[in-house]
Structure formats: structure tokens, C-alpha cells
Automatic annotation (TrEMBL):
<feature type="domain" description="N-acetyltransferase">
    <location>
        <begin position="3"/>
        <end position="189"/>
    </location>
</feature>
<dbReference type="InterPro" id="IPR016181">
    <property type="entry name" value="Acyl_CoA_acyltransferase"/>
</dbReference>
<protein>
    <submittedName>
        <fullName>GNAT family N-acetyltransferase</fullName>
    </submittedName>
</protein>
<dbReference type="Pfam" id="PF13508">
    <property type="entry name" value="Acetyltransf_7"/>
</dbReference>
<dbReference type="InterPro" id="IPR052523">
    <property type="entry name" value="Trichothecene_AcTrans"/>
</dbReference>
<dbReference type="InterPro" id="IPR000182">
    <property type="entry name" value="GNAT_dom"/>
</dbReference>
Amino acid sequence: MNVLVRQASSADLEAAARVLAAAFDDYPWTRWAIPEDGYLGRLERLQHLYLSHALENGVVLVDDEVRAVAAFLPPDVPAMSQERQKRVAELHGSRLSALAAVVLPEPPRRSWSLATLGVHPARQGAGLGSALITAGLALADRDAAPGGVALETSDERNVRLYRRSGFTVTAETPIADGPTVYSMSRPPGTA
């Protein structure tokens, strides 16, 4: 299948946030980190906030129909604005203290981050996610960041997907009463 991948614009944010909310509906991390009360609405608003930050400071990729979304952040990306951080905290609500207590390993120094990747459930398995990963990794490789690309996932199925793209698991962090987080990285220029 030939997938047309392009950089997202601000006009794509609403649709992209909806796609990510649908893709992450049953995701172990979001189910643990976001209160059940209004879960889907909170998830979509969180995705919109994170995508807005990524669009301003990194690269957001979508397929032409906006059924798949990936956000890549470069090394030394600035922190989210205080206003966005406040809104993120409000959306995490009662789960914020548990979320703040999580300590994950640091990614490789000067690495890009594959911050999110999601495909609408109706289109999963069609190669859209792989196409976005490939395009994003090519951008990161052109940047020649010495740390390569790092990511975190809490779904073992994703570990297999990312391994096919050259990532290896660098740490497994079990979260108390929550999922295991797999930290993964891919050295620069790995074909």
C-alpha cells in the first residue's frame, strides 16, 4: 500500500487529536493515567494539547486522510508553556499525583523523541503507522542527532512494531498498580 505522508498543519489538529483519542482508547498508559470520569473527552483534549506543542516545536506527520498521526520532538525541545502544563494537570485530575511519582529512565542524550504514534482503529494493520515511523526516522536521521530516536510504550504489541523499525528495548519499568513502560531507542542512521 502506498501511503502519502505529509507534515500536519494547525488545520489538522482537531482531526489528529480525534484519531489519537480513538487509537489510545484502550491503551494501558492512558487508561491508568487519566480518570475514568470523562475519559474520552479528557484524552482527546490532552492529545490536542500535546500535538499543539509538537506542531510548534517539532514535527507532526499524518497520512493524507488524517487516519494516522505521529509526533517527533527534536533534542532540547522547550518545555510546554505554563498554560498548557496547567491544562494538562487539570485533565489528569485525580491521577496527577500518581503520574508525577513515575520515574522513567532518561533517553539517550541528544536524541529525538517519537512522542506519539496512533492509527485510527478502523485503519490499523494497513501500514499507516509504519509509513509514519519511516518518514519521521528519515527526518531525525537527516538532523544527525547523536542520540538517535527514543520512545516509550506500554503496549507489548507496539514493542514488536518498533523493533521492526530498528528500536531496541533499553529498560522495562513496572508502574505500581499500572502498566509496564518499555523504554526503547534507535541509534542514528539505523536503516
